[in-house]
Amino acid sequence: MNNLLLYGWNDSLFRQKQSTPFSGLPHGRVTVTHKTCYEVVAEDGLYLCELSGNILYGRMPNEYPCTGDWVIFQPTNEGRGIVMDVLPRSRTLCRKKSGTVSDKQMIAVHVDKAFIVQSLDANFNVRRAERFMIQVLEEDIQPVLILTKADLGFNEQEIADSLKHLVGKAQVFTTSIHAPETIEALRRSIGKGETIVFIGSSGVGKSSLVNALCGKEVLETSFISDSTGKGRHTSTRREMVLLEHSGVLIDTPGVREFGITSGSADVLSSMLDISDLEGTCRFVDCTHTNEPGCAVIGAVANGTLEQGVYESYLKLRREARYFSTSEHERKGQEKTLSKVLKHYAKNYKKDR
User: Fold this and answer.
1) In this structure, which CATH number among 1.10.540.10, 3.40.50.720, 2.60.40.10, 3.40.50.300 belongs to the domain 93-251?
2) Residue 32: beta bridge partners?
3) Is 312 annotated among the ligand-binding residues?
4) Is 148 annotated as a binding residue?
5) What is the DSSP string of 239-300?
6) 119 carries a ligand binding annotation
7) Does 222 show up as a binding residue in the annotation?
8) Known binder of ligand: residue 206?
9) 286 marked as binding residue
10) Is 150 annotated as belonging to a binding site?
11) pTM of the predicted model, to two decimals?
12) Domain 11-86 sits in which CATH superfamily?
């Protein structure tokens, strides 16, 4: 028997289930998603489930189950079932789908904490950590920054300086799988029934960290390449594993690019320590780019705001705005801009 409380089942989810037409059927949580089926953990075991026709043909693909979803299913044969409904989602971690303008790719659902994993080697990138944090905070998920491979040696002061603007927004753990005390400290931070998703680039040690937390090999890993310094294990799917007597851990494939799908101006400003400066700009609608009396630009000039943080703010703000603009609106804006440029070019030639 599985204790679904450890997987995050709670009274709120129970009430949501009772309001559906399928309240008499068993429920479970999606642990792994495949192309056409889903692995679901239920009280009486594991099931491999397909979608009902109503879901398959009556809903959009982004409404299909995702890793972490709670579903109601109809058992069929031994260990098999059909998903009849998906309970309402909360705290969904997404990224911009590669190769698209404004499509989202769901990573995990019902997430309590996001372990943002960065290795203390050449892979370390504070700008990438900022990008992950923006997306996490926007979804009301608690960010936790995990620095791995501390045994390789690193410049502590340099790392501390680069992260000083993030320390107040996220708990930071420095870990090594060869130092059990660092793993134990991280394990104690995971509460009973919490859902933790691991995000980061390939080779930062996410799967090795999950194995260390569980105290056994639950995810496949491989050797470290001498030429790249990265592990050869590359997850191609999101997997959920149970941390004994605690919560659940979701490992995700490493990402080369993590496009944000949100990022309000308030979240960006707060996370990058710009919000206090904004209130002292000369103009209320200051864009912090070239206006006179801009306190943000002034802070960059006098060194109280790092140039790199400022540039990251502008880039993330621009990216968030671009994503939020629908493709139709974007094409309309491009058409209008094209007309303006043509009009300008025509009149410029006349003046000449």
Assistant:
1) 3.40.50.300
2) 39, 239
3) no
4) yes
5) EEEEPTTS-EEEE----S--B-S---HHHHHHHTT-HHHHTTSSSTT--SSS-TT-HHHHHH
6) no
7) no
8) yes
9) yes
10) yes
11) 0.81
12) Nucleic acid-binding proteins (2.40.50.140)
Label residue 39 left, alpha or beta by phi (over 0 means left) and psi (-120 to 50 means alpha): beta
| 208 known ligand binder | yes
Compute CA distances 320 → 5, 95, 101, 245, 308, whole Å: 36, 11, 11, 39, 18
| Largest pairwise CA distance in the chain | 84
52 is in an annotated binding site: no
Q: Is 315 annotated as a binding residue?
A: no
Cα separation, 28 vs 83, whole angstroms: 10
What is the full DSSP assignment across 222-237? -PBPTTT--BS----S
235 is in an annotated binding site: no
Quote the CA–CA distance of 66 and 86 in Å, as a whole number. 10
pLDDT in tens, the chain (352 residues): 889 999 999 999 999 999 999 999 999 999 999 988 999 999 999 999 999 999 998 888 888 999 999 999 999 988 999 999 999 999 998 876 665 555 678 889 999 999 999 999 888 889 989 988 988 888 899 999 999 999 888 888 999 999 998 988 899 999 999 999 999 999 999 999 999 999 988 788 888 899 999 988 877 654 444 444 444 444 445 789 999 888 999 988 766 556 666 656 778 888 888 888 988 999 988 999 989 999 999 999 999 999 999 999 888 888 877 776 654 564 565 566 556 655 545 664 455 5
Q: What is 265-339's CATH number?
A: 1.10.40.50
